[in-house]
Amino acid sequence: MNTRLEKMDVCMNPKTPVKEVIALLKDADWRVAMAAAVALGDRKDATAVPALVELLDREDKEPQLFTQTEDYSYQTFAGVCFALFGSPLPADTSEATALAWQRRGRLKQSAIWSLAAIGVADDAALLKRLQGYALDQKQDYMVRAASFRALGIFGDPSSRATFEKGMSDPEWCTMTEARKALAKIAMKN
Questions:
Q1: Dihedral over alpha carbons 149, 152, 157, 159 (to 10 degrees)
Q2: Are 160 and 89 contacting, i.e. CB atoms less than 8 angstroms apart?
Q3: How many domains does the chain have?
Q4: Pick from 124, 110, 133, 183: which is nearest to 153 by CA?
Q5: In which residue ranges of the chain is pLDDT below 50?
Q6: pLDDT tens-digit profile of 97-143?
Q7: Which residue, 2, 19, 146, 168, shows the most beta carbons closer than 10 Å to its own?
Q8: Do residues 129 and 116 share a domain?
Q9: First-to-final CA distance of the chain
Q10: CATH code of the domain covering residue 185
């Protein structure tokens, strides 16, 4: 197992022991780590929760390169609204920074979705963490949207205030996930 694709195939193979997939969460190639996170969510194995939380811990220590730029506008095409961003990276950007930008938020998003699939709604610290991600404008929008979606799946009433604040998020996907999560909470009551 040497190449990126071989490692990703190992992650997605249902016969691969969960322990091996968890080990690949630490792979130096972010794409392999993301495949491992996705595979662990597919398996819904609660033994993966500590490793997925550890992945979030590692990603939280990475530079906040995924902060949204102010330089964007919206354009509608075929009835769908798209955000058009200016170039976020200067021409003299290092290879390491460019790579970090490529992976921005994707590992967190995958870990969050997997935690939601596994169903760890009883973890108060994790709920608080996801509530923080959901409202943190320095997080990539896909991390914020994934956090709202996960919190909606968990359906914990302590997230209601987070959903209400998210209803005014400037990013459409994030606002929509907050709205859907709030509706799920309302239906339960």
A1: 10
A2: no
A3: 2
A4: 183
A5: 67-78, 81-85
A6: 777 777 778 999 999 999 999 998 788 999 999 999 999 998 989 99
A7: 146
A8: no
A9: 50
A10: 1.25.10.10
Could you tell me the pTM of the whole model? 0.83
Residues 37, 52 contacting (CB under 8 angstroms): yes
SS3 assignment, position 72 = strand
- Rounded Cα distance between 163 and 173, Å, is 13
How is residue 159 annotated by DSSP? Answer: G
Mapped to the 3 state alphabet, what secondary structure does 74-141 carry? EEEECCEEEEEECCCCCCCCCHHHHHHHHHCCHHHHHHHHHHHHHCCCCCHHHHHHHHHHHHCCCCCH
Q: Which domain holds residue 45?
A: 1-120
Take residue 76 and report the two structure tokens written for it: 């509608």
Contacts of 55 (CB under 8 A, 6+ apart): 25, 33, 37, 107, 108, 111
Supply the DSSP string of 27-82, one letter for each residue: -SSHHHHHHHHHHHHHHT-GGGHHHHHHHHHHHHHS--TTPPPS-EEEEEETTEEE
54 plus 82 within the same structural domain = yes
**Which of 153, 149, 147, 138 is closest to 104 using CA atoms?**
138
